[in-house]
Automatic annotation (TrEMBL):
Residues 95-201 form the Disease resistance R13L4/SHOC-2-like LRR domain. It comes from Actinidia rufa. It comes from the Eukaryota. This is Leucine-rich repeat (LRR) family protein. Residues 28-69 form the Leucine-rich repeat-containing N-terminal plant-type domain. The lineage of its organism: Eukaryota, Viridiplantae, Streptophyta, Embryophyta, Tracheophyta. Keywords: Leucine-rich repeat, Membrane, Repeat, Signal, Transmembrane, Transmembrane helix. Residues 1-24 form the signal peptide. One of its GO terms (biological process) is defense response.
Length: 328
């Protein structure tokens, strides 16, 4: 008798569960937004987006690249990944109506024009990947409203103007990729207040200023591991305060106009593995401590005015990074 009651109760629970699933519809706001995006995208995406419901309806699966989750009585779109499919045209503004997005990945397409200021509406966004497009103009200051953002990939575009200091308003930011754009001005020292920032890449832009200006805030960049400032127009020298970035592993200063001697303290950054000083205006000698550093694998120094007898450590090559969070 007990088993029969248990079986009946299980059947009722199963029926109720299935009933919830059947009647759990996608939020109309998200359905409308995805259909607007669909109307603006090229055939390479549209042909795989079939059915009326982007989260799946009946026998139809969710649209390719669309991830949904259940919130109460509705399903909402939480991830949109449409990359490497040759999307042509402006950034689809309707994306900013998907208010529950945590990941937006549109990289390796042919998107043009600016990032719309409405991007600031995506308060739950953690990962924004727009690299390898043809996006232009200045980055809107509203990007500083994405308080949950941990990864920001904007490299290999045509962004111009200054790097917005509003990026310093992103308390969870860990990885910031801005290389291969047309940014001008100085790197905002306010970025040094980001307590979780591990990777900062502003290489291959048109930036000016000095390293001293970048690290002038006391206690800045406490967890920074990788700093890429290469291929810009930085001047001045390497300040002794740089040695305070004790978690630094990669320092890339190649192809700037940085001068002076290499401070002894830099050789004592405990975790330093790769140091790129080439094609600047450095002089003097390399402190012996660099050659005794327990972890330094590469030190590239050509194209400077170092005294004779100074030799590089290792061979300049593509870096192999083991941190899976760093590789995206």
């Amino acid at each position: 008798m007990a088993n029969r009651y248990a079986s009946t109760a299980f059947a009722v629970i199963l029926f109720l569960s299935l009933n919830v699933v059947v009647h759990c519809k996608t939020l109309k706001r998200d359905v409308k937004a995805l259909n607007e995006i669909k109307a603006s995208l090229g055939w390479r995406v549209v042909y795989s987006w079939v059915g009326d419901d982007p989260c799946g309806d009946g026998d139809l699966p969710p649209w390719s690249g669309v991830t949904c989750s259940t919130q109460g009585d509705y399903r909402v779109v939480t991830e949109l990944e449409v990359y490497a499919v040759s999307i042509v045209g402006p950034f689809p503004v309707a994306v900013t109506n998907l208010l529950d997005l945590t990941r937006l990945d549109l990289h390796n397409n042919k998107l043009t024009g600016p990032i719309p200021p409405q991007i600031g509406r995506l308060k739950r966004l953690k990962i924004l990947n727009l690299r390898w497009n043809k996006l232009q103009d200045a980055i809107p200051s509203e990007i500083g409203e994405l308080k949950s953002l941990t990864h920001l990939y904007l490299s290999f575009n045509s962004f111009k103007g200054e790097i917005p200091k509003e990026l310093a308003n992103l308390p969870e930011l860990r990885y910031l990729y801005l290389h291969e754009n047309r940014f001008v001005g100085r790197v905002p020292p306010e970025l040094g207040t980001l307590q979780h920032l591990r990777h900062l890449d502003v290489g291959s832009n048109h930036l000016v200023g000095t390293i001293r200006e970048l690290i002038r805030i006391e206690g800045c960049f406490p967890y920074l591991r990788n700093l890429y400032l290469n291929n810009n127009y930085l001047t001045g020298g390497i300040p002794t305060q740089l040695a305070n970035l004790t978690n630094l592993e990669i320092l890339h200063l190649s192809y700037n106009k940085i001068s002076g001697i290499i401070p002894f303290g830099v050789a004592h950054i405990p975790r330093l593995t790769h140091l790129y000083l080439d094609h600047n205006q450095f002089s003097g000698r390399i402190p012996d401590a660099f050659y005794k550093h327990p972890f330094l694998k590469e030190m590239y120094i050509e194209g400077n005015a170092f005294r004779p007898g100074v030799n590089p450590i290792g061979v300049h090559k593509v870096l192999e990074v083991s941190d899976t969070e760093f590789l995206f």
